[in-house]
Design a protein that fits this description.
Layout: H1 19-28, H2 32-42, E1 45-48, E2 53-56, H3 67-77, H4 83-86, H5 92-112, H6 114-117, H7 122-141, H8 147-164
Antiparallel strand pairs: 1-2
């Protein structure tokens, strides 16, 4: 890279991801969006892509919760469904304890507040249990083997490679370089 020339970080170079691509990737890791979808589905709604809105599905009225119930359950599982969790590295024993604690708490909340949550049958409790269990298990197990963390780290190292490509290494660790003087004769 010639002196005075700045590297172009916003375009794709040599097939490597750019800084903008990294930011896009981080924006796409949004497990909390699943919580909003779960809330709508707990209320018996489905996404209508034509109208681009959530609409009530009459076929789900027997298993749906009230808005209060759906909000309470999704607020409970939200902390287990954030970006921080998606890059954490929990042990299986920690996951099991957290998972069982969330399921028990969700069921206790449903039993204690059955009327305002709209609980009318045992099948609704199983429905809530399965949703809480599945979402929490997937959220907590997602970072296993550091898949997302490794992906982000490789993106960072690729960006470093692009940023330093073509720079001369001289002096101590490439920190001190001789200036090139340009003479105009």
């Amino acid at each position: 890279m010639e002196e005075g020339q700045q590297p172009n970080y916003s375009s794709q170079q040599n097939g490597m991801m750019s800084f903008d691509s990294k930011a896009d990737l981080l924006d796409k890791i949004r497990p909390e969006e699943a919580v909003e979808q779960i809330k709508q589905r707990l209320m018996g709604k489905e996404w209508n892509p034509i109208k681009e809105e959530w609409i009530q599905n009459p076929a789900l009225k027997d298993i749906s919760l009230t808005e209060v119930g759906a909000c309470a359950v999704t607020n409970l599982i939200f902390p287990a469904s954030t970006r921080n969790v998606s890059v954490s590295n929990l042990k299986d024993e920690e996951i099991k304890k957290r998972l069982l604690s969330l399921v028990k708490t969700a069921l206790k909340m449903c039993l204690d507040n059955w009327e305002i949550y709209g609980i009318k049958s045992v099948s609704q409790l199983y429905f809530v249990k399965e949703i809480v269990y599945t979402n929490t298990l997937v959220s907590l197990k997602q970072p296993e083997n550091e898949g997302i963390r490794r992906l982000l780290n490789s993106t960072i190292s690729e960006n470093r490679s692009v940023a330093t490509y073509g720079e001369e290494k001289s002096g101590m660790l490439g920190l001190f370089r001789r200036k090139k003087w340009i003479r105009n004769y």
